[in-house]
Specification:
Blueprint lengths: L1 E5 L5 H11 L10 H9 L3 E7 L2 E10 L4 E9 L8 H13 L4 E3 L9 H4 L21
Parallel strand pairs: 4-5
Antiparallel strand pairs: 1-2, 2-3, 3-4
Amino acid sequence: MITYDLEPGLTADEFIDILERSTLAERRPVADRPVIERMLANADILVAARDGLQLVGVSRAISDFGFCTYLSDLAVDQAYQGQGIGRELIRRTHEAAGRGTTLILLAAPKAESYYPHIGMTRHDSCWIIPRQIEPYVA
């Protein structure tokens, strides 16, 4: 049975492991542990899906809890995909942020067809400044 819970203390090791098992590691700085640790420490919402003690899914979001919530990571172990875990992680993330917020996410190329399937609406106006790699300063 899959259980879900807010896990603000999720460890970097567990997060990196689920990113790798979900293929999201291809687009995340998993080799840069200080960045991963900052990603976790500064997240407003971390929702975990577990099968027993094993982490099988995670969502990581940043929110102002009033107007918008950016769902920055949605990772589900490939062996557990197709069971509704991603949909439930999204639902619980939005619930934790407040249903009055707009949930925003940038889809990974491999997942673009998934989001309309679960009721999300495509928005064609997204603009970014790419990440600049800077040396870590403690």
